[in-house]
Amino acid sequence: MKISNNWLKDYIKTELKSERIGEFLTDIGLEVEGIDKFESIKGSLEGIIIGKVLTSEKHPNADKLKKTTVDVGNGKILNIVCGAPNVEAGQTVPVAVVGTKIYDKTGNFFEIKEAKIRGEVSQGMICAEDELGLSDDHGGIMVLDESKYEVGKNFADYFELTNDEVFEIGLTPNRTDAMSHYGVARDLYAFLSTNQQKGDFEKISSVALINEGSHEFSLEIENAELTPRYIGAVIENVKVSESPSWLKDRLKAIGLSPINNIVDITNYILHGFGQPLHAFDADKIADKKVKVGTVAAGTKFTTLDGVERTLNGSEIIIKDGKDNPMCIAGVFGGANSGVSNDTKTIFLESAYFNPVSVRKAAKSHGLNTDASFRFERGVDPNITRTAITHAIKMIQDLAEGKLVGDLLEEYPKKIEDNYIIIRFSKIEQILGTKIHREKVKEILKALEIQVLNEIQNGFEISVPAYRADVTREIDVIEEILRIYGYNKIEAPQKISFTPVKLSANDQDELENNWARTLQGLGFNEVMNNSLTSVKDEIDAVKLLNPLSNDLAFMRKSLLEGLLQNAVYNINRKNQDLKFFEFGKIYHKKDKYEERKQLAILVTGRNVAENWLQPKSVTDFYNLKAYVKVLLERVAIDYKEVALSDDRFSDALSYEVEGKTLVRIGKVAPVMLKDFDIDQDCFYAEIELEFAQKLRSNNELKFKDIPKFNKIRRDLALLIDKNISYKDLYQSAEKNKSSFIKNINLFDVYEGKNLPEGKKSYAMSFELLNEEKTLEEKEISEVMDSLIKSFQKEFNAELRS
Fold this sequence. Notes:
alpha+beta; five-stranded antiparallel sheet; 19 helices; 42 strands; extended
């Protein structure tokens, strides 16, 4: 949201500089993301001097150029080469002297420098209107009336130029009260007035109007719940024309394009007060009757953008006496009822519409307007009359309009303020500090929150209806804190807490355990949006009312989000990544399905680059090791099974009791290509609910550290290339000996000095008898048994 500093000062008078105002706004929750400069004419005509052309003659070396001398005052005569066909001696002209910056429409500029043009010295430029940003005319240089313009004067002195500073505020959706210049000023004043800062705030109120004669228009509200308040005014003799410069500059400063005085006035009130208005061509309203209600589903309606839309029957519709739609209330006007250059009489609308209905209508038709942005969040129901009276006064002043008859108004049931009890003990509990009750009272008053009654431990208060986000005691405490100042709350030097014993049935404890483990292994946790777009809609859960096409589905996998995190970092030269995320995935098969997973993604180097270690690119086995560490922490046994999954080029699943616990693999190249990633990525996902179930069923038992030492023996085996380490490992595990405690593969060799089709595996075995020291005879029996198994099952040979 853009807020003009000049506009803001219409409501609050302060000598604070814009940078300081920006700091204060950020402190109270209206985060200022940037402050931009606005100039009604780019460059503000700086460096443009009024000059007199003394001589003008043909350039000796160019047919289309002229060589001139120009008096720019104080006895200074400039030689200027000019290409305009209409330059002549005796003209009064605007001159850009050396050092002046000339801006184009895009904001880019070039600087005037002394130069030689075809051999002749040029010390400036005689300007055309478009070069100064005054119009699009480039038919020749701008010739001024010598009776009005004095040679040597600054050209800017003859214009009312606007220079402004514009705050870019990252407004949160709940702050409906601050969606206007008046709302921001009101919030700023609350802070200034309670923090010993000077600032005078001017509250707005309805304008006293003079009406003439009467009108024949009538108003009918079909459903007071959809339209709690509606006000209409009939204004005749309107002259639709261009707005004055000050009004156009106000709108341009916040990024709006001026249209005509009537539309510009409604936009001015919208961004000034936060109340959307709409003007209809009154002569196009059948039977001079305005009805607010609904129409039958399937009704066709063409909106201002020229698009024919099919209404669903739930929208609030502004209709004429024959039930013809004129406007989707609070969202978008109609093409056939709006104000045009030929409009003479207007019907001006100011209303409070049901926020939920407006939001549904806006989302249903894919429309997001300044009006719907405010209505769907809840505007101030008590500013409706104030806003329309100010608009009428502006129309009278700027469009010569004449208000006829009384305002038409329907407000059957007043929207009440919120009644809340706030306790001092609760304030101290939440803030961790004590604020004097008089200070609390002062802040509430500054926020226009009325203290109805002082009770023993707090206040009974009434929160104005425009604060739609303040409905609970905790909301009021937040308001007090942001005005009091977050920076005034001291952080405690120590934090005391009571440890809570967590059981094996607590899934949060499992997640925390795994998160700490992964963090210790160098991983970073990420959190991604559950809403996404999908290529394949099979089994996908689609939202009934999505915010956009990019957020139309619930995610089917956590992989896509982690790949987006990866490409974001890779594009910023951070290529060695370890990410994990706890999140839910969603599917629609026979029924809706929701599962929580732990997802892990690794890519790039496994160990940071340094002089001691060679480059170590992470691989499938590194990821397997990380997963193994997690499963060992909760003592889950599993079986590895080959996995076929379109997301992976190579993959395994870990299964327990026939159900998949883990999927792990190398991300398929086609997926990496979709995300524009050109380095290998490895991904694993663990089913959290299943892991928790297995964990809670496990009974962990502790045993003493062995009193006797382990014995290690190694075997170097010559085997066929098609035999995997997994085959050898499983064979060794089946050995009847209880002395084998650990099996490891520590060397693999393929190459010279080996027979064709053979490879060498070097395996180590750790043996332990927990009752006594192993004897050599016992060790030999175990190793002989392993050798015989390898020879029998795999035709293995021992290498010496």
